[in-house]
Write a structure and sequence with these properties.
The chain is an alpha+beta fold. It is built from 10 helices and 10 strands.
């Protein structure tokens, strides 16, 4: 697809701003959106204007240090521009950042609870887990500094006692990731109120991670998710780990390996694999 013109990108930002406003993710002038238009410039929403009222000509062009290079004189760039630019400069592949206060996600950010458990398959595959970043004073470097700790492996973030932050290859991906986070937070909260939140089993989380690989999604920079305290990520598929280092699971792990993956087995483990294979063949024959 051909690269979009600046005019089209401005229209995309306005469309996303109105979705954010109509979803009830912001009150008054809350929230901000940015998109990189070339290596040295981004367009962002102005401060002090409701996302429901923004038009393309109100958007402001800034350089990567946050200096305004184009825009109406009476308008100023978003007060959170430092946070946006820090992410745009430091997260490869990301050209857009969306910040809002969607109520369920923000409630988790206020409760101090990260959305980090392996609960819904789509979320395990698309987002891994959603970390809670340390509280920072809005408009200062405190927020970007806290986000930076999680930036490499995550796409969306809960800002402690503040709201939600999402990144994407374009403004729609950043928006839809926030939509996924908010629905996940809502489902989580409802399940919690019903009295129980089950996590997906280890074996099934591994299958989901394997699917990500098959679908060509990035495996290097991906957070994974937790079952209780235990973080499940690609190292579990590649190496196997202590808690599951029994032979039964090793056989199950074997089925998750890629064709070119190298593995090491003890004599006993090899013997178990052969035995279980022979047994299943014999069982098949005797039917
Ligand atoms: Zn905010």
């Amino acid at each position: 697809m051909a690269e979009k013109t600046e005019r089209e990108l401005r229209a995309d930002i306005v469309e996303v701003c109105s979705k954010i406003y109509n979803n009830g993710w912001v009150a008054a002038n809350d929230g901000n959106v940015s998109v990189m238009i070339d290596d040295n410039h981004a367009i962002c929403t102005p401060t002090g204007i409701s996302k429901g009222r923004i038009t393309t000509d109100m958007l402001i062009k800034v350089d990567m240090d946050g200096n305004m290079t184009e825009g109406e004189k009476e308008l100023k760039p978003s007060s959170e521009i430092k946070m946006h630019l820090d992410i745009l400069k430091n997260k490869p592949g990301v050209t857009s950042v969306v910040h809002a206060h969607p109520p369920y996600s923000t409630a988790y950010a206020v409760a101090g609870i990260p959305l980090d458990q392996c609960i819904l398959p789509e979320i395990v595959i698309s987002l891994g887990h959603i970390p809670l970043t340390k509280y920072g004073t809005p408009s200062t470097f405190e927020i970007p500094d806290s986000v930076r700790e999680h930036l490499k492996d995550n796409f969306v973030f809960l800002l402690e006692n503040h709201g939600a932050l999402s990144t994407g290859e374009n403004v729609f991906q950043a928006y839809y990731r926030m939509e996924s986070m908010e629905l996940f937070a809502k489902i989580n909260a409802i399940a919690q109120s019903l009295g129980n939140v089950n996590t997906i089993s280890e074996g099934n989380v591994k299958k989901l991670l394997k699917l990500r690989t098959q679908w060509g999604m990035d495996t290097e920079n991906f957070s994974g998710c937790r079952i209780g305290d235990r973080l499940m990520n690609y190292s579990d598929i590649k190496n196997g780990t202590g808690s599951e280092n029994n032979n039964k699971n090793r056989v199950a792990d074997y089925n998750l390996l890629q064709d070119n993956d190298k593995i090491t087995l003890t004599r006993k483990e090899l013997q178990d694999i052969i035995e279980s294979t022979v047994k299943s063949i014999l069982k098949e024959i005797s039917r």
